[in-house]
Amino acid sequence: MSYSLALFGEQTYGEDRDDGEEALHTEIDLMKYLPPYYYEIVEMLAIQSKLGGELGEQAEAIETSFDQYFVHSATWGLTRWENVLGLKSDSSLPDARRRESIFAKLRGAGTTTKVKIIQTAIAFSGGEVNVVEYPAESRFEVVFVGTKGIPPNMAGFIQMLEDIKPAHLAFSLKYTYTVWNQIGTMTWNQARIKTWSELRVYEGV
Question: What pLDDT shows up at residue 155?
């Protein structure tokens, strides 16, 4: 015999089995786990409502805390990641920018190689990157070939590059821009409505 709306152990707190969607943590309905004769008792409704709210808040806090263990989902936990990795923490920056620096630092850990520099650059630009080495000149060049123009957060990338590269090596950055024959199909009227900066990174239609 079952007195509740669902058999014990078959339904988790906060789960709505009627429409297939999980309710918000703050809306956990504990009354569904009690026999129907409790439904008309005002005191029981108040007690279960209070307990359900507190359980929902605890569940949400646990889930949010768990998110901080992973860079891609961390929010307030980004500060701890930055402290552990020796990065400057600036909460005024967007979380996406802060994650870029953290991912780049993690990828750049250990002995710096050409591959590590490429991985670090990709973490910031999100596109294909090449590194050209000039051993005789003790320098290398980072070429952004996957995205046109200057990628965002270049100040953060340059600082990261300074941190991971061998001290005796110099470096330069090379960006990709639109060449004239790539916009040759545009009419003057089409071109005049775009700024010079837009034309420099024009991808065509």
Answer: 80
